[in-house]
Amino acid sequence: MTFLAIDVGNTRLKWGLYASPQPGAALMAHGAVFLETIDHLADHDWKKLPAPTSMLGCVVAGESIRRRVEEQLEIWDIDPRWVVSSAHAAGVTNGYEHPARLGPDRWVAMIGAWHYVCSRGAPRPVLVVMVGTAVTVDAVDESGHFLGGLILPGFGVMQNALEMGTAGLRVPTGEVVDFPTNTSDALMSGGVNAMAGAVERMYRKLRAKTGQEPVLLMSGGASPKLSPVTDLKIEVVERLVFDGLLALQSHRLAL
């Protein structure tokens, strides 16, 4: 009953092959490729993998990318299944104004975060921060109800916007420092502190609304840049989207 989890973002495709479709299952193999190279997955990364029994993925990169991934999946006899955000799934309620319009990566990450928190004891509010091409900050209360969230530009998008709109800012990537004294450090420190401020504000709002100290979970390829900046207690969970896909697949099989 091996299970293939796929997370197709705006920049990279991440995949993980699990021993079974249930939370906590052993991760047998995993990898990540840039979207420009996904047409070689069947001949390279996936060529020697044991055939998965089932798969579930989420994709935010568009229909053409999804079709290209499905072409690579043809090396196995499995039906491609992709997450569509719904009003309720795996114990989590979607409070978005139009639930189907919520990005599937955000939805799956929240489900993964909710199950991660519940697996360690009594349910608590959780703030889910995903740091990638975009940064999302999503609040879930102690009952598993998604209250709402923020979308911010990620590091690359933010710096590219400044370089395009401001003369003289085409400089190498800088460091995060308290008091920047050069343009490179000022750009990086400004972007990181803007994101950290959004996280801290949403954390305080969630704490005030629920009357409980939230769990703050962070995931995504660029999370190491952001997590050290805030004074809040942060847990970095490397594969939060995969955790959500495992929870969804396990819940589906149990129905």
UniProtKB/TrEMBL annotation:
Catalytic EC class: transferase
What is this enzyme's catalytic activity, as reactions? Answer: (R)-pantothenate + ATP = (R)-4'-phosphopantothenate + ADP + H(+)
UniProt-annotated location(s)? Cytoplasm
Q: How is the cofactor bound?
A: A monovalent cation. Ammonium or potassium.
Task: Provide the residue positions that the database annotates as binding ATP.
Answer: D7, V8, G9, N10, T11, R12, L13, K14, T133
Give the residues annotated as active site.
Answer: D105
Pathway info:
Cofactor biosynthesis; coenzyme A biosynthesis; CoA from (R)-pantothenate: step 1/5
- CDD domains in UniProt: ASKHA_NBD_PanK-III (cd24015)
Binding-site residues, substrate:
Y96, G103, P104, D105, R106, T183
Q: InterPro entries annotated for this entry?
A: ATPase_NBD, Type_III_PanK
Record key words, sorted: ATP-binding, Coenzyme A biosynthesis, Cytoplasm, Kinase, Nucleotide-binding, Potassium, Transferase
Q: Please tell me whether the keyword Transport is annotated for this protein.
A: no
| Xref: SUPFAM superfamilies | Actin-like ATPase domain
Which cofactor(s) does the record list? K(+); NH4(+)
Give the EC number.
2.7.1.33
- HAMAP family, per the entry: Pantothen_kinase_3 (MF_01274)
Report the protein's function. Answer: Catalyzes the phosphorylation of pantothenate (Pan), the first step in CoA biosynthesis.
Q: How does it assemble?
A: Homodimer.
**Record protein name field:** Type III pantothenate kinase
Q: Which organism is it from?
A: Piscinibacter gummiphilus
